[in-house]
Design brief:
The chain is of the alpha+beta class. It contains three helices and four strands. Strands 2-3-1-4 form a four-stranded antiparallel sheet. Belongs to the UPF0045 family.
Amino acid sequence: MEASVAIQILPKVESTEEVVRIVDEVIDYIKSTGLTYQVGAFETSIEGDFDQLMTVVKNCQLIAVKAGAPAVSSYIKTVYRPEGEVLGIEEKTAKHAH
């Protein structure tokens, strides 16, 4: 695995219920990709091929808009190592699981 991203999607909608509904649709899409991911309280981490992850990041915006957000802000963190491996989600978080 050459890359990992963390993505936070913030749909510009009026109600908390709408935020949750739209973010849930985005997370359902991430699940459907078959990539390794972990949902957190503020962001979702995903790992895999760099190009595939960049497509997922793009699609997350499109899905949020299609789900009803007139606009969306996203915060993305990326780790990329084209000639090697990056630390995986499990390696980073296993010792902190409860």
